[in-house]
Design goal:
The protein has 104 residues and is of the alpha+beta class. It has one domain. Helices cover 53% and strands 20% of the residues. It contains six helices and three strands; from the N terminus they run ααβααααββ. The chain has a three-stranded antiparallel β-sheet with strand order 1-3-2. Strand 2 and strand 3 form a beta hairpin. The N and C termini lie far apart (34 Å). The mean pLDDT is 94.
Length: 104
Amino acid sequence: MLQINDYLEKNIDSIKSIITEFEINKEFSSHDFIEKFTAKFEQDYIEMLVNYQKSGQAFQTVHSLIAKFLSLKMSILGIEKTHRKVSENVRGNLDIIQWWNRLS
């Protein structure tokens, strides 16, 4: 089973690279990050979802773990939390999620 935190840690340089695609001091959401992440790591992302499919909430679980990783590694990734607000999820539903600023 692919361990999400271990996977993200192992690929932290690529995670940093994804973050540099966002403009400095312009807000982006966890969903915005996940969209770029899935484009870069599509096969691994699918495996993550498959690992949690029996939970009935694979997308929510995987996305929460990715967002938690961003939160725990903010200083290393050069981001800061702004606030939580509405964003459309992959199913077209509105969720209240974390938004971020890229610092450098």
